[in-house]
Amino acid sequence: MSKFTRTQKILMCLIGFFLALGLLFQGMRQASISDIGYSALSYLKYGLIDYPLTSIKNFASDFSNLWKVQEENDYLKEQLAMTENYQTLYENALREKKELQELLDMNDTLEDYTKISAKVISRDVSYWNDQLTLNVGSNDGIEKDMIVVNSQGVVGKIYKVQDTTSIVKLLTCEDKSNKVAVRINFTTEEDTSAEEKSKDSSGKAKDTKQVDSVEGILESYDSDEQAYVVSLLDEQEIKEGMQVVTSGKGGVYPSGLFVGTVKKTESLENQLGQVIYVEPVSNFQYFDYVTVIGVK
After folding, report:
1. Vertex 185, ends 184 and 191: CA angle to 5°?
2. What digits encode the pLDDT tens for the residues 158-195?
3. Which of 30, 32, 35, 179 lies 20 to 30 angstroms, CA to CA, from 122?
4. Mean pLDDT of 54-65
């Protein structure tokens, strides 16, 4: 094989050089020098100006949204707290409504007596079981020793009277001068022959039971037993759960007002009679409305 001469080699190098140069110019035709310079300036402007400004703007927007979310969160917490208050107010309103309805129903059964509706305006925590103040007084017809009842029964007696207010001495007061005449109702069986017990004049079965009662005095309140102390002068058998009502003796208040139920009994040592412990009405600790009752 013959070798290329020096001239041929030079010629082949020139051809390759011009071929490479042609390819270079072809590529530069696709992107001019001005386009390359514009792209460089655009990247420089974006990196030094646009991007920092956009980042600052986004940060400010995010911070503003975060602040708004915090305010909304605080508002929702406040509304949640108010919802709990509204629930408490609603439950209290329902309790007062029930109390007033029960008191109204009871007042309807006392048509023959003076009834004065009142609201409790003061009940000192230090004397919670001793006394309370009502928003009625002598101008409303209140008199000393009138009986005071809430929606379930007797709670006390009028102790002091002023023109527009009055003080009630509660039955739970340990003052032994706050006495009330009471009676305990119970059922007994008539003493009749077997034939009379079994049939009446029409031949039907005859009920031989009758309601009887024994009278006593509500003397005081025993804080240890959390019950009234009632003294009886009769040895009548008294059982737990029997109802205790006012007897009306003395003419200041009517008879038949519910006082409480028998909790337990104790016989007196070395003397006749017995002591009865009577549990007060169930809502004695918490009530807002009462009725003051007197004889017409």
Report:
1. 125
2. 999 999 999 999 998 877 777 888 988 876 555 544 44
3. 179
4. 76
Is the Cβ–Cβ distance between 131 and 170 less than 8 Å?
A: yes
pLDDT of residue 43: 58
Written as one string, the DSSP assignment of 183-201 is EEEEEEE----HHHHH--T
Any idea what DSSP says for residue 139? G
Q: Residue 258 — φ and ψ, nearest 5°?
A: -65, 130
Residue 293's SS3 state is: strand
Cα(178)–Cα(120) distance, rounded to whole angstroms?
20
256, pLDDT greater than 60: yes
The continuous run of DSSP H or E covering 13 comes out as helix 6-30
Q: What is the DSSP string of 197-223?
A: HH--TTSS----EEEEEEEEEEEEEET
> What pTM value is reported for the model?
0.60
Q: What are the distances in angstroms from CA 268 to CA 186, 264, 265?
A: 21, 13, 10
Cα–Cα distance, 36 to 245 (Å, whole number): 110
Q: How far apart are CA 281 and CA 77, in angstroms?
A: 41
Q: Kindly give the pairing relationship between strand 209-222 and strand 227-232.
A: antiparallel
Residue 188 · residue 212 · CB < 8 Å: yes
Tens-place pLDDT, residues 21-54:
665 555 555 545 455 555 556 655 565 666 667 7
| pLDDT higher than 50, residue 220 | yes
